[in-house]
Specification:
The protein is an alpha/beta fold and about 230 residues long. About 35% of the residues lie in helices and about 25% in strands. The structure holds adenosine-5'-diphosphate (2 copies).
């Protein structure tokens, strides 16, 4: 539920390589934005800077009109889903999704309501008592998404969430993410992939990164029909 604005954002790692030169982007609340571009062009770097996991060398990042360059990740209202699921192996699906809410000291009733709502949305209700090792890769990735949803983030970040899945699960999980977009129309979603089909099916707008800059930005058909 937030606008995300990047102004003259630059990233230079400690080895002095300028990975991102001058990124300017205005992402509106509720938009589904997909970053595409060749491997190594800085997609993950950009996502990690938005999340706060990576420092911005210069330029500003605003969320809802507030400059958040120095705001710690946990206070940005952002949830991130990575390509590896990073679930807690000794906790059930339910507990994996409930954990951050327990830390935030929500009441048992509120936690239960949030977890069951997310499970329902992601078709995980039959698996709530299972441990992650008893799930398929696609189910695990849905749990990881569920863990993000229950915190009701303003912004969702996805870093190649389907790339560890086999082809069939990739399609099914992609459809879950499309459902997520439909059922959470106010949430801003920023998604990194190198898969053109994912970009085409999910994006409101695609951002093509190349050579450290935004090369093109627009709706999928504009990008892929007039390359
Ligand atoms: P992409 O996600 O588009 O594949 P990345 O953002 O992962 O690109 O990486 C962009 C470039 O920055 C690559 O050349 C990569 O090697 C380099 N890079 C990424 N992380 C670091 C780091 N922590 N230190 C130095 N260079 C890095
Ligand atoms: P991705 O699959 O997102 O492109 P990579 O496999 O390139 O990610 O990088 C994995 C991790 O290694 C990241 O945390 C990134 O910051 C780090 N990394 C990537 N390239 C470099 C580099 N040249 N020097 C130092 N760390 C790097």
């Amino acid at each position: 539920m937030a606008d995300v604005k990047l102004t003259h954002v630059k990233k230079i790692y400690s080895n002095k390589v300028e990975v991102l030169k001058d990124i300017n982007l205005d992402i509106k609340q509720g938009e589904f934005i997909v970053f595409v571009g060749p491997s190594g062009c800085g997609k993950s770097t950009l996502l990690r800077m938005i999340s706060g996991l990576e420092e911005i060398t210069s330029g500003t990042l605003e969320i809802d009109g507030q400059v958040v360059n120095d705001v710690p990740p946990a206070l940005r209202g952002i949830a991130m889903v990575f390509q590896s699921y990073a679930l807690y192996p000794h906790m059930s699906v339910y507990d994996n999704m409930a954990f951050s809410l327990q830390i935030a000291k929500l009441s048992k009733e509120d936690i239960d309501q949030q977890v069951r709502k997310a499970a329902d949305l992601l078709q995980l209700t039959p698996y709530l008592d299972r441990l992650p090792k008893a799930l398929s890769g696609g189910q695990r990735q849905r749990v990881a998404i569920g863990r993000a949803i229950v915190r009701r983030p303003k912004v969702f970040l996805f870093d190649e969430p389907l790339s560890n899945l086999d082809a069939a699960l990739r399609v099914a999980t992609r459809m879950e993410i499309a459902n997520l977009k439909e059922s959470m129309p106010d949430s801003t979603m920023i998604y990194v992939t190198h898969d053109q089909v994912e970009a085409m099916t999910l994006a409101d707008r695609i951002v093509l990164l190349s050579g450290g800059d935004v090369e093109q930005v627009g709706p999928p058909l504009d990008l892929y029909e007039h390359p």
